[in-house]
Structures are given as structure tokens and as C-alpha cells.
Design a protein that fits this description.
Distance between the termini: 35 Å
CATH class: Alpha Beta
CATH topology: Rossmann fold
Bound molecules: 3'-phosphate-adenosine-5'-phosphate sulfate, adenosine-5'-diphosphate
Order of helices and strands: HEHEHHEHEHHEH
Radius of gyration: 17 Å
CATH architecture: 3-Layer(aba) Sandwich
EC number: 2.7.1.25
Keywords: ATP-binding, Kinase, Nucleotide-binding, Phosphoprotein, Transferase
InterPro entries: APS, APS_kinase_dom, P-loop_NTPase, Sulf_AdTrans/APS_kinase
Protein name: Adenylyl-sulfate kinase
Pathway: Sulfur metabolism; hydrogen sulfide biosynthesis; sulfite from sulfate: step 2/3
């Protein structure tokens, strides 16, 4: 950090960008097992917001693990580094006034604590996309659970790598109990008043 001088006296700040966009820059952090419904819900919520005239950005494994985080795997250390980088990027977007929807397994309390600290308590809103692993495994959207059961993928979340349920999320959506549209309504009801 020696010889690094962050700029704190920018002419334009978050509030200026928010005024331009007529919205609040926040981070919506979707947490859940593979197959729980994070991406599906993130995409439909983004579409809803876009159609309402809001500027949004989704960050998920598909657009980060193939680029910025292409050198990372699924060890505990790599997952932590993955989430650290994502949280830093999400913070930049949110400070630009963008409604930023992050969709990552984010499997442990300590990893989520880190992203909350990076982004800031006031901007970080955690959504637990809750779904029993039996249901996720039955959905097996990408065939990864079957591979993990056959031992072809190691450190698979929920099989041989831990997933700790969020302790105090802002919102819980139960994708095994409600259909997509009802889960979307839960998101709309919670978030629209604060953006
Ligand atoms: N070992 C292992 N464990 C879990 N998931 C795996 C693994 N290997 C590949 N995948 C695929 O990677 C996606 C999860 O990446 P994330 O960046 O969200 O994971 S993490 O937050 O860093 O734990 C996850 O995507 P989603 O299904 O969208 O959650 C999987 O498709
Ligand atoms: N209420 C729901 N919300 C979101 N997805 C659901 C719901 N009910 C069933 N699904 C299905 O579950 C699967 C979830 O897959 P995906 O969104 O890729 O999960 P993740 O991003 O968490 O890995 C999709 O096939 C989706 O159609």
C-alpha cells in the first residue's frame, strides 16, 4: 500500500450519480446452493427493474469466473478470493448508482461477513435463496450434482464442501415452496421501496 494514494476528494460522488439515474445504488447479494434458483431469480428481477427504467448489473459466476476470476477454483481459499474480488467490483458499481445483483453460492458466514464489510453495511442486502439440497440435486440443472456424486468433481458445495445457512439475511425466498413469480414478488415487495 506504500505510495498508493486513494482519491477521496472526487468532484462527483455517489449521490450525484444517483440523482442522474433517479435510483439508489445498492448491492443485492443472492446466496444459495447450486441449483437453488439464484441466477433465475436474479435475471427475472433484473428484467423487472430494467422494464421499470432502472439501471442494473448482474454479477455471477458465469461472467466473473470466465474472466476476472478465471484463475480461481473451488478450494476454500479460492472461493474467498472469488468473493473478495466480486465484492470490490460490486462496490464500484453501487457507488456509480447501479443496482447490482450478485449471484454467488457464498457458502460460509465468514465469506459473507467479508463481502458485507467490503461493500458496507448500508449498501449490502443479503437474500437467502433457500432450497433443500435434495431439491437442488433433483433439479440438477447443469448435471453437476451427478458428477459430484460420481466423484468427478471434488469440493462440491453441499456434498463434500460446506454450506452454512445465512444467519441474518435481509430476505429469504423459498424456491421449493413458491414458484418463480411468487419469489419475484417477494423481491419486488422488499427492494422496490428502498431503490
Ligand atoms: N466444486 C464446485 N462447487 C460448487 N459449484 C461449482 C463447483 N464446480 C463448479 N461449480 C459451478 O460454479 C458455480 C458456483 O460458483 P460461485 O462463484 O458462485 O461459487 S463460490 O461462491 O465461490 O463458492 C456453480 O454455479 P451455480 O449453479 O450458478 O451456483 C456451479 O455451476
Ligand atoms: N421459485 C423458483 N425460483 C427460481 N428458480 C426456480 C424456482 N422454482 C424452480 N426453479 C428452477 O430451479 C432452477 C434453478 O437454477 P439456477 O437459477 O441456475 O440456480 P443457481 O443459479 O442457484 O445455480 C431453474 O431450472 C429454475 O427454473
Amino acid at each position: 500500500m506504500e505510495n498508493i494514494h486513494p482519491i477521496f476528494d472526487q468532484i462527483l460522488g455517489k449521490a450525484d450519480k444517483e440523482r442522474l439515474l433517479q435510483q439508489k445504488g445498492i448491492v443485492i447479494w443472492m446466496v444459495g446452493l447450486s441449483g437453488s434458483g439464484k441466477s433465475t431469480l436474479a435475471k427475472s428481477f433484473e428484467k423487472y427493474l430494467h422494464d421499470s427504467g432502472k439501471l442494473t448489473q448482474i454479477l455471477d459466476g458465469d461472467n466473473l469466473r470466465t474472466g476476472l476470476n478465471a484463475n480461481l477454483g473451488f478450494s476454500a481459499e479460492d472461493r474467498e478470493e472469488n468473493i473478495r474480488r466480486v465484492a470490490e467490483v460490486a462496490k464500484l458499481f453501487a457507488h456509480c448508482g447501479v443496482i447490482t445483483i450478485c449471484s454467488f453460492i457464498s457458502p460460509t458466514t465468514s465469506i459473507r461477513q467479508m463481502s458485507r464489510e467490503i461493500i458496507g453495511d448500508d449498501l449490502y442486502h443479503e437474500v437467502f435463496v433457500e432450497c433443500p439440497i435434495e431439491v437442488c440435486e433433483k433439479r440438477d440443472v447443469k448435471g453437476l450434482y451427478a458428477k459430484a456424486r460420481r466423484g468427478e468433481i471434488k469440493n462440491f458445495t453441499g456434498i463434500d464442501s460446506p454450506f452454512e445457512n445465512p444467519e441474518n439475511p435481509s430476505l429469504i425466498v423459498n424456491t421449493d415452496l413458491k414458484n418463480l413469480d411468487d419469489c419475484l414478488q417477494d423481491m419486488i415487495k422488499f427492494f422496490v421501496p428502498i431503490i
